[in-house]
Amino acid sequence: MKNCSPWLSCKAIKREVRKLKYVDEGAVKMVFLSEWKENKVALSQLTVVPPTPPPLSPAPRFHASAHAVP
């Protein structure tokens, strides 16, 4: 590559980068061998992570007792 370019926008990636081959994946991303302007590049694509649920509210307090049964 003769010239450096700034980071590509999401729109430019969708329009200009062509996935050639799935390479591997990790916990949060998939990696593809791709092509951009006749250059081979690695495309890291984040996997969809569901939003974190809100914290649980404190459990209601119950009064419990145990009695022996004759």
TrEMBL record:
Protein's cellular compartments: Endomembrane system
Coiled coil (residue ranges): none
Keyword Transmembrane: yes
Record-level GO cellular component terms: endoplasmic reticulum membrane
A GO MF term: carbohydrate kinase activity
Keyword terms of this UniProt record: ATP-binding, Kinase, Membrane, Nucleotide-binding, Transferase, Transmembrane, Transmembrane helix
Domain of life, per lineage: Eukaryota
Keyword Hydrolase recorded: no
Protein's membrane topology: Single-pass membrane protein
Transmembrane segments: none
GO biological process: one example: protein O-linked glycosylation
Annotated PANTHER family: PROTEIN O-MANNOSE KINASE
Name of the featured protein: Protein O-mannose kinase
Lineage: Eukaryota, Metazoa, Chordata, Craniata, Vertebrata
